[in-house]
Amino acid sequence: MERLKVSDANLVVYVHPSKSRRVSQAILRELSSLLLKFHEVFDAVVLAYDVEIVDKIAKNLPGLHPYFGVRLNAKLLLFSPKPNMLLEGKVVKLTQESIHIIVLGFASAVIIGEDIREDFRYKNKNGKELYCSRSQKHHLIKVGMMIRFMVKSLDEEILHISGSLLPAHTGSISWLDKNSTEISTTDSVGAVERE
């Protein structure tokens, strides 16, 4: 997924002298506090890290709190969705007004009615909710399916994504993968007609 990237970072972790016998544990605890939160410094959510201590000698910081700084090299796995990017997620709930999705198992996303293509119609068959394409009868969106959608916005504080199914290359991943040549042909025909 192109929204995931690995970044090399040079970091300094400040450790209290009371933790000097367990510096590695203190560093890992500090780095763990970065996980699954949006950080403006990285412009992304930190999903994982791999760390290497650069200097075995730490530097004391003068001041009221005598912390010492440990320099690290870290590889960070970052999740950075931006508007107009495509994301994939698992549908967890369908209503007549919205589609609710989980991305990478931790970020929630919602696609509201105005951002669902007119071609998709909501149906409730035998208690099973689904969205069905009017033009492509086998293009269905059901709970448990993986879908591809376009990012409209990201609320960084609560990691909530607002999405859209308006572009033609969005919808059920299994259907899109089987019919990708048909979609690109339709897109190019539509582009010619609009000119």
TrEMBL record:
Its main location: nucleus. GO terms for cellular component: RNA polymerase I complex. Keywords: DNA-directed RNA polymerase, Nucleus, Transcription. The keyword Cell inner membrane does not apply. It is found in: Nucleus. InterPro entries: RNA_pol_Rpb7-like_N_sf, Rpb7-like. The keyword Iron does not apply. It comes from the Eukaryota. DNA-dependent RNA polymerase which catalyzes the transcription of DNA into RNA using the four ribonucleoside triphosphates as substrates. This is DNA-directed RNA polymerase subunit. It comes from Punica granatum. The gene is LOC116198779.
